[in-house]
Amino acid sequence: MNAKNITDFVGNTPLVEATNIINKKNVRLFLKLEGHNPGGSVKDRAAYYMISEALKKNNIKKGDTLVEATSGNTGIALALMAKVLGLNMVLVMPEHATIERVKTMRAYGAEVILTPSEIGMEGAIDHALELKYKKGYFRLNQFDNLDNPKAHYSTTGPEIWRDTDGEITHFVSAMGTTGTITGVSDYLKEKNKDITIVGVQPKEGVRIPGIRKWPEEYLPAIFKREKIDKILEVNQEEAKAMTIRLAREEGIFSGMSSGGAVASALKLAETLDEGIIVAIICDRGDRYLSSDIFV
């Protein structure tokens, strides 16, 4: 019997070509379906890597309690990975998160603490930090933890390079913690320095789950602006419309951060004479059914 642990199925997600939403001669768009990870999002990679590396370094041991602030997908991934690896997980998130995400975290056995919407993600981070010092919990700190981008340098980047036969010309990713885009950039630039790395962030005042424009004092330490060649901004209407189009025209069910990334990838495609674009589809749409995206 060649049985495997659930963590063996993190990564090696499908790369599929968009066939209906793009119509630009000599430009092809490929979508990396991160919803096929066990926990349903790209965050499985960083969650597994951060926890397993902390265990290897003896920063934590089985039975310890971890704490982390999250807007959703990271929390689900951490809840899953922590329990599988023998740890307790406390997650702090703004109360406006969809109920599907909260229930999924609790289903995996995590304690979920909801903070007021008006203090946003920054307030959740502050509360997680308070718990770290008051209760002695170990804070993974996905925003500053170098094992976050290393997960993508070690897995996501190599997979994209392999599955495009090294022909990728542009990589597009929504920016949240910035771990995905930073790690993938490191790997792809080593392979071909001419690959263009494109980050996607919301326009000023726009709220899109999974995409952030950070205040300077909360900017993730793992974020390296020099690793990103271009930043495109997207509004909520564009992201929502593309999320719906992905489901109806490509059969790809995802959240709005993915819609924002693909909307930006199509804008990019219009500026190119030729190219191979890869965009990240961060997660699955089933964790957003209680929102107003799919009505």
Automatic annotation (TrEMBL):
<feature type="modified residue" description="N6-(pyridoxal phosphate)lysine">
    <location>
        <position position="43"/>
    </location>
</feature>
<dbReference type="InterPro" id="IPR036052">
    <property type="entry name" value="TrpB-like_PALP_sf"/>
</dbReference>
<dbReference type="Pfam" id="PF00291">
    <property type="entry name" value="PALP"/>
</dbReference>
<dbReference type="GO" id="GO:0006535">
    <property type="term" value="P:cysteine biosynthetic process from serine"/>
</dbReference>
<dbReference type="InterPro" id="IPR005856">
    <property type="entry name" value="Cys_synth"/>
</dbReference>
<feature type="binding site">
    <location>
        <position position="73"/>
    </location>
    <ligand>
        <name>pyridoxal 5'-phosphate</name>
    </ligand>
</feature>
<protein>
    <recommendedName>
        <fullName>Cysteine synthase</fullName>
        <ecNumber>2.5.1.47</ecNumber>
    </recommendedName>
</protein>
<dbReference type="InterPro" id="IPR001216">
    <property type="entry name" value="P-phosphate_BS"/>
</dbReference>
<keyword id="KW-0808">Transferase</keyword>
<feature type="binding site">
    <location>
        <begin position="176"/>
        <end position="180"/>
    </location>
    <ligand>
        <name>pyridoxal 5'-phosphate</name>
    </ligand>
</feature>
<comment type="similarity">
    <text>Belongs to the cysteine synthase/cystathionine beta-synthase family.</text>
</comment>
<dbReference type="GO" id="GO:0004124">
    <property type="term" value="F:cysteine synthase activity"/>
</dbReference>
<dbReference type="InterPro" id="IPR005858">
    <property type="entry name" value="CysM"/>
</dbReference>
<feature type="domain" description="Tryptophan synthase beta chain-like PALP">
    <location>
        <begin position="6"/>
        <end position="283"/>
    </location>
</feature>
<keyword id="KW-0663">Pyridoxal phosphate</keyword>
<keyword id="KW-0198">Cysteine biosynthesis</keyword>
<dbReference type="InterPro" id="IPR001926">
    <property type="entry name" value="TrpB-like_PALP"/>
</dbReference>
<comment type="pathway">
    <text>Amino-acid biosynthesis; L-cysteine biosynthesis; L-cysteine from L-serine: step 2/2.</text>
</comment>
<keyword id="KW-0028">Amino-acid biosynthesis</keyword>
<feature type="binding site">
    <location>
        <position position="257"/>
    </location>
    <ligand>
        <name>pyridoxal 5'-phosphate</name>
    </ligand>
</feature>
<dbReference type="InterPro" id="IPR050214">
    <property type="entry name" value="Cys_Synth/Cystath_Beta-Synth"/>
</dbReference>
